[in-house]
Amino acid sequence: MDDRPVPSQTLDQEPRPRARRADRSRENGTDAAEGAGPVGPEGPDAPSGRERRGNDHLTEQEAIVIAEESGAVIDEISTVVEGKHSVIGTAVLVLLSGGHLLIEDIPGVGKTMLAKSLAAALGAKRLRIQFTPDLLPTDVTGASVFNQATAQFEFRPGAVFTQVLLADEINRASPKTQSALLEAMEERQVSVDGITHQLEDPFMVVATANPVEMEGTYRLPEAQRDRFLAQTTMGYPVGSAEVRMLAAQAGPVRDGERDVLDAIVERTTPQRIAQHVRDVRRVYASPRLLEYVVRLAAATRHHDQVALGASPRAAVHLVRAAKANAAMQGRIHVLPEDVRSVIMPVWRHRLHLTPQALSRGTDPGDLIEQVLASTPLT
């Protein structure tokens, strides 16, 4: 069950072009977001001079470091998970947001490989749980075991005591076992026999679900789906990417390596990622932008085809993801375009449509597009 991380390597300190482009866009005062104003300090979504001088907001140098390291991690994972740059970017964004990722797709498209590659590129500890109908909650969280030598109960940690947890085929376990992850995902802690045990930092759950074989599966409860910051799918790779994948994964293995994951080079450390997660929270989000997010959430709640719209937790997750998206591009403040870029994976799995909408085959993504089009920035 325990996949050992590969030996640590030194992060390449050469600045990445993407971070330099982001820095130049700040100097030029350009902005790709429609109606958002310039990117520079004078823009309506940027912090004022007094706010920029304070200690509560991210500095430009810190943002560039986050952009460089996150880009290096994405590029490293892309050497193993071919042709899925967007999905890999979503996984890193969720990590920097301090959230958890749900991947729902058919078997064999690289869901497990993505989670393992992410942990390997971070140099993080990783564990995998294969969820089955007979899996017990104590298998996930741990249990107190009586030690005859000391005549005392000792806590034996479960699989959640790691940094990247792969919950494989989570929908095959019973709801009771699925719920054992709830406290760990939300509070970063586990309570056993009245004693609270803190989890490691960073901590991320990457859960996979197979939507094809539904026999013997249990649908994830709404409370647990809402705790996943984002949901995504892998999809089939394009032809050229699949050819490269076959050459890499079906070719010879170099001496000292057991599989393709052993070739992944660590591009950062868990300690640096934990600090980046804290730094992302310091990205500036203007009151104007927060009001825009609130209007988006209200629009989903009042949509005539939506039975259950975006919750307040969904709004919080959207702002955190938008901040991470800004930091990954080397910016110190959030633009409306950041919100539009991340809203689909963050909210799509949270909307519950009316029976009439479901009978017509309406997709939640289509409704989110309608909400974006009908909600003004101001």
- Tally of strands: 12
Approximate strand percentage: 5-15%
Overall domain count: 1
Strand order of the largest sheet: 1-3-6-9-2-10
What do we call the CATH homologous superfamily? P-loop containing nucleotide triphosphate hydrolases
**Rg over C-alpha atoms, rounded to the nearest angstrom:** 22 Å
Average the pLDDT over all residues and give the rounded result. Answer: 84
What report would you give on this structure?
The protein is an alpha/beta fold. The chain has one domain (about 1-5, about 20-375): 3-Layer(aba) Sandwich (Rossmann fold), CATH 3.40.50. Helices cover about 45% and strands about 15% of the residues. It is built from 15 helices and twelve strands. It has helices spanning about 15-30, 50-55, 60-80, 85-95, 110-120, 135-140, 175-185, 220-225, 240-250, 270-280, 285-300, 310-330, 335-345, 355-360, 365-375, and strands at about 1-5, 100-105, 125-130, 140-145, 150-155, 165-170, 190, 195-200, 205-210, 230, 305-310, 350-355. Strands 1-3-6-9-2-10 form a six-stranded mixed sheet. The protein has a two-stranded antiparallel sheet with strand order 4-5. α3 (about 60-80) crosses α4 (about 85-95). The radius of gyration is 22 Å and the shape is globular. Residues about 1-40 have low confidence and may be disordered.
